[in-house]
Amino acid sequence: MPPPPPHRPTSTSTPSGKGELAELKTQLRQLAGSRAPGVEDLKRELYKKVISYMTIGIDVSPLFSEMVMCSATSDVVLKKMCYLYVGNYARVHPDLALLTINFLQKDCQDEYPMIRGLALRSLCSLRVQNLVEYLVGPLRSGLKDTHGIKDFSEWAQCLVLEMVAKYVPEDPNETFDIMNLLEDRLQHANSAVVLATIKVFLNLTMSMADVHQQVYERIKAPLMTLVSSGSPEQSYAVLCHLHLLVMRAPVLFSSDYKHFYCRYSDPSYIKKLKLEMLTAVANENNTYEIVTELSEYAANVDVAIARESIRAVGKIALQQYDVNAIVDRLLQFLEMEKDYVTAETLVLVKDLLRKYPQWSQDCIAVVGNVSSKHVQEPKAKAALLWMLGEYALEMPDAPYVLEGFVESWAEEESPEVRLELLTAVAKCFFRRAPETQKILGAALAAALSDAHQDVHDRGLLYYRLLQHGVETAERVINPPKQAVSVFADTQSSEIKDRIFDEFNTLAVVYQQPSYMFLDKEHRGAFEFSDDTSTNASVTESSETMLASQSVDANDNDLLLSASEKEDTRGNLVSNGSSSYVAPSNSLIDGLGSFTVPPAASSLPTASFAIDDLLGLSLSTNSPESTLAQPSLVLNAKPALNPGAFQQKWRQLPVASTEDYGLSSQAAANLTGPQPLLKHMQTHLIHCIASGGQAPNFKFFFFAQKSNASTGLGYFLVECIINVTARKCTVNYKTDESDLLESFAAVFKSAILNFGV
């Protein structure tokens, strides 16, 4: 016979069989209704034993009923262990999970907030489909629970506030209730909580102009407090958001300009932001104090800050505030005899003279004393050359200074300087021909042999103009000029609005919309459409051309302020079966967060009913049909690429601006750009670009008159929609002004029928 198995002692943490489980069940039943002293401690011991068994994989689900019965206690530790047990076995035994509903719902109404929260979390963690209906009531009560929006950790508060920022209130009263509830979060010590709260306030009041302005006033103090406390890195992050608000509403911060003075201990990145804010808030009441402060920074040991301070003084001067004193300050900078100070000042003096020609006598008298040998930077050289050509009569040495530049033509590396030199010599020739004729000949000869194409072409143009006559050349090269009223902003309002939409994100810190620094797959709400199913006939070579395009991450120009390079930057991709031209990747990336809609060629050919947009008969069965034909019929397949759209948008003035109200159904359906794009395409109105996120969207549409000549008959539309206010603002541009009213009626009808 085989030897008997060796005896192994039973572990105290492992049940020896059904007998021990039965014993645990009996003990739990005995303790379920007991109120004797020490019973809670006994329950804890039993609960710990059950949880330990469950943890090592032993099935203790037969104890489910007894564990639920023992949950009637105020001991938080027991509650937690019971919730852990229930959550573990509810998924495996959904029939048993029903037993937990009553006690969990009861705990959701417990007087202690921690138990209420634990019970609600456990109830939502059951994950049993037929129990979902029991979650609605506790969830609604939990959302109305006034205890806890303050006891959350900072991270949890930020998550909650981020969700609240996306909420659209039903009426103004609800807006004020939310703001009053979150008012004390503006005083929180954590900057992330404060910024998240500010985002909520700004989003909620976007359509309430008066209240929105009051929000700015309310949030100033918390932001300035955070800027002056904490580490430089934290201060910079907060200051970036304050900088964004100052740029949007500088008047509201004009009385707080002293808060933006640079401190000696400020890092250079903080000083730079403060200088920009000082420039923005300058007005007739504080200009003298601000310029005085900025002038002190011009002598800063940090060259970059010194340059920025000089530029700031110049920008304030261009805002027409106390120009007299500012011009004197700028001219004093030229006496500092520092190359970088002289360079920045010359550039600003040139801009001042373009806007205030009446100051030429004072400025030229000082600029004439500047030695050209001390001007080494290309932009400064170009500015000095412009003044030498423009004010050749007021500067006695102008021809001789220009002669020195022409003699060193081959040594000049910058094409910008060579172009400006050629123009300056020509202007000087028109005013002082005897002294400049020989210099002009040398400059033209150098330009015609220049390897740079632009310099060569300008030299050839000037040479041929002079062949036609000096008077003809002067009318082209040096026509009468008007003073410049407004200088172009380096960053378009489109980008600023898009950054504001991404408040409390890295977009504010980087001062760029997220699409400029995020990979395509991580752009979230600001992403591009990759749907190729609607345009499957694009040739392989065209796809290769698109793939070869690269994104210029430093290109801040958008639709309304694109540089001339945009006109030729986009490669055209033609659909083999249509005249519609698809936009290139590089141009679309230049448009920022806009989404490329499906190609117009992918739409079905317009039916008779769609073509008859004005409700007039288009029948050709009778001679009278020509009389009944509408004045406007839209082309079903218009050909317009984004580059051409941009060029036309810049060239054409706004012909009309209209405001339309949206129906509640339309506002509800506009959860993203795509529904409206598809709707408008059925009306032969195509979207070239779209962007934004609820509640604010922006679209650029275009349409073309049927049978129009190439490049003509276009209607361009900028459509700005606020879902909360249910308002649509439309700007029309067209080269068919006589048909604008008809097209506006078509567009209005399409918009008003959206969602119906």
Task: Give a summary of the structure in a few sentences.
This protein is mainly α. The protein starts with 17 loop residues before the first helix and ends with a helix.
Report what the structure shows.
This protein is mainly alpha-helical. The chain contains 36 helices and seven strands. The strands form two sheets. It has a five-stranded antiparallel β-sheet with strand order 3-7-6-5-4, with helices on both faces. It has a two-stranded antiparallel sheet with strand order 1-2. Strand 1 and strand 2 (581-582) form a beta hairpin. It is found in: Endomembrane system.
Assembly type = single chain
What structural category characterises the helix and strand content?
mainly alpha
Number of helices: 36
Distance between the termini: 90 Å
Radius of gyration: 36 Å
Q: Can you give the mean pLDDT? A: 78
What percent strand?
5-15%
* Count of beta strands: 7
- Poorly predicted runs of 5 or more residues: 5-14, 525-630
What characteristic shape results from the CA principal axes? elongated
Q: Strand order within the widest sheet? A: 3-7-6-5-4
